[in-house]
Amino acid sequence: MSDRQLPPLALTQGDPSGIGAELALKAWLLRDARGLPPFFALADPAHLSRAGKALSLAVPIETTTPLQANEVFARALPVVPLGVEVSAAPGKPNPADARATILSIERAVECVVDDAARALVTSPIAKSVLYEAGFPHPGHTEFLGELARRHYGGGPRPVMMLWAQLSENESLAVVPVTIHVALTEAPHLLTRDLLIETGEIVARDLSARFHIARPRLAFAGLNPHAGEGGAMGREEIDVIAPAIAALRARGIDASGPHPADTLFHAAARANYDVALCPTHDQALIPIKTLAFDRGVNVTLGLPFVRTSPDHGTAFEIAGKGVADPSSLIEAIRLAGRLSEG
Length: 341
Fold this sequence. Notes:
Blueprint: E1 9-12, H1 20-29, E2 39-43, H2 45-54, E3 61-63, H3 69-73, E4 77-81, H4 98-113, E5 119-121, H5 127-132, H6 140-152, E6 159-167, E7 170-176, H7 186-189, H8 192-208, E8 216-220, H9 235-249, E9 253-258, H10 266-269, E10 274-277, H11 280-290, E11 296-300, E12 306-309, H12 326-338
Parallel strand pairs: 1-2, 1-5, 2-4, 3-4, 5-12, 7-10, 8-9, 8-10
Antiparallel strand pairs: 6-7, 6-11, 11-12
Helix pairs in contact: 4-6, 8-9
């Protein structure tokens, strides 16, 4: 089935004072050159029109419905209005715009639930701005997890994976097992149950979404040299190795714990499909070093496909016309690929 016959992708607005509008406009302009599947934006059409004019991006904006978006996509950027205007001065985030940012995410999930969209791609948000408006969730992923439970009932917890196409024949995927916590807290959060649950979710979604028959999971150690046999910490012996053994007993191809400093050179990458790292920076430093402009944030464990560019709102360059749409383009392409059925 072609992209034109499948439902389109839903692209959320993100923080309207950031670079989200510029990236959406540039992605549409590159739709044919980069082979993008049809998508529609859930946003304020007037805001996108203003952004296009200010940035001299000749993008026609057409208000539409999700069902009409495929037809519109060839001639204009389809926009499904939120019914909420935004002030959106570039680089000057305003908590008054938080309602529209949140509503865009909620509506995108509803579109996927109703089969009006086949997947969602989320534009960057600024959590601090949402917090000022009373947003109760730690971040984007946790909010999507709540929306999934609201619409689908219980299910696995969301797991953040960063993915990048390094070359025609090689991709890199990394999962931080603990995410946005202080480094001092990570060892206390790193339990066998957390590692096992994360490994199971990753293995299942790599098989179901990425069509890897038997995913190879490589676990990094927490301590230097993976603890050096207990000389530099016992987390590898007491926590990580038993979790890996439990995953193997369940039929999952899991290896490690490997020293994190030798897990990401080219020869090592050939031995696994995804690297699971105990801390945030262990996972994100290598992928951002190897593919800074092309990384994609993929949320595993959800009942729908969600991708996002692997960068923030970039308020400091908003409105200047210099934002690179590569990561958003890769996020759109990956969402299309993962939701082909």
